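Tokens for chain A. Residues wanted.
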């Protein structure tokens, strides 16, 4: 286990905190359309303030490719954070340099500062040591509460931790707890639901989960690669033809281990995906004609999957089961979200990214045990990969007394 903000004295300290404020902005109004990630950071920020620290926040937003771009400024985030914290948040229009250091050195306990977008500097993603050292100069203690970027060894997620005592935030602690428990000591029966577009994105996690789960449920675009591997007609549905042999081997592994590997038995299909009034129909698996593509699981599949989940005590869901962004193709994902919400006494862990967005769209987020804030990070964690932004943090065994 890793040390957290609770393990180190914070009174009078400058806490340099990496948060994930990579929130969606409306291009026309520059207004935040979903402030979930900002809200998730509040407990750690508030804890540090309550302990008598001042807080210096750093984050990225979008992909400005190492150049200053007003469209990717964190200024709107500072405004929203001020409202949520009910206190003034000072926004600085840079993240390093003498002027920033001067402003930071004048901070008092209870002050909150948000630095400008780290990715205005190409050195951030390159984990440049000089850039990391410049960031580290702004704090006495480093706190990483940005699980969504923990799988990247960037200057603000890994480099800074070489210069300051480094611990996790409360959100980071929560993410590690739920994902670690789902991997190491899940209550059985244990089910994994995997969806999304591509098998290639899920190979690692699927391979590992086949050694742990009691059943696997597959939907979304990746299902068609498995169905084609079984010789079924998938029409013009998305398929990774170079992964057909891999799909066959995963199906064989599940059969050998006697693990139910559930695939869609019917589909919602369309021949006019981009036309909101285009034709849509439901067909059984293997009956998709050329020119038509699968865009959601059908009602029989939704019922099959729901029944399979009835007795589950631990469920991990990563990847939607259809193109949920369009309401007409969201019914399958909605049905499964409702099935998880109805489970009694079960731990339901939702992988970040699109799956989190789907659950939030269906207004069922509060019915899940944990919704990860990191899509890619949660996938890599479940694969068993080392996440640099977590690995660099102090272990619980290290003496907290070292921070004076």
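Reply:
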């Amino acid at each position: 286990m890793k040390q957290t903000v609770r393990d180190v004295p914070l009174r009078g300290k400058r806490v340099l905190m990496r948060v994930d404020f990579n929130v969606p902005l409306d291009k026309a109004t520059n207004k935040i359309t979903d402030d979930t990630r900002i809200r998730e950071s509040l407990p750690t920020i508030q804890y540090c303030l309550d302990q008598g620290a001042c807080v210096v926040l750093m984050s990225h937003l979008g992909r400005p490719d190492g150049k200053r771009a007003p469209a990717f400024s964190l200024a709107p985030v500072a405004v929203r954070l001020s409202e949520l914290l009910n206190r003034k948040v000072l926004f600085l229009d840079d993240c390093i340099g003498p002027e920033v250091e001067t402003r930071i050195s004048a901070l008092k306990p209870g002050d909150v500062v948000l630095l400008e977008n780290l990715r205005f500097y190409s050195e951030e993603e390159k984990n440049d040591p000089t850039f990391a050292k410049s960031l580290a100069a702004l704090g006495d203690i480093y706190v990483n509460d940005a699980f969504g970027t923990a799988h990247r060894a960037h200057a603000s997620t890994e480099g800074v931790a070489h210069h300051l005592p480094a611990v996790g935030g409360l959100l980071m602690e929560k993410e590690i707890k739920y994902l670690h428990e789902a991997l190491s000591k899940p209550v059985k029966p244990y089910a994994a639901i995997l969806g999304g577009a591509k098998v290639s994105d899920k190979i690692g996690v699927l391979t590992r989960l086949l050694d742990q789960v009691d059943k696997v449920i597959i939907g979304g675009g990746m299902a068609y690669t498995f169905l084609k591997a079984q010789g079924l007609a998938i029409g013009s549905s998305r398929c990774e033809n170079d992964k057909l042999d891999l799909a066959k081997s995963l199906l064989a592994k599940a059969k050998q281990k006697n693990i139910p590997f559930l695939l869609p038995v019917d589909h919602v299909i369309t021949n006019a995906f981009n036309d909101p009034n285009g034709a849509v129909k439901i067909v059984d698996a293997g009956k998709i004609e050329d020119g038509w593509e699968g865009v959601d699981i059908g009602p029989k599949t939704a019922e099959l999957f729901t029944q399979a989940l009835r007795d589950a005590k631990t469920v991990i869901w990563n990847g939607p089961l259809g193109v949920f962004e369009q309401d007409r193709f969201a019914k399958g994902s909605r049905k499964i979200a409702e099935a998880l919400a109805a489970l009694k006494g079960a731990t339901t862990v939702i992988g970040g990214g699109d799956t989190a967005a789907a659950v939030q769209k269906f207004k069922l987020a509060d019915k899940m045990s944990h919704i990860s804030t990191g899509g890619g990070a949660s996938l890599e964690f479940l694969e068993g990969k080392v996440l640099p932004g977590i690995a660099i943090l102090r272990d619980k065994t290290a003496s907290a007394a070292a921070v004076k």
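The longest helix spans residues 36-50. The longest strand covers residues 14-18.
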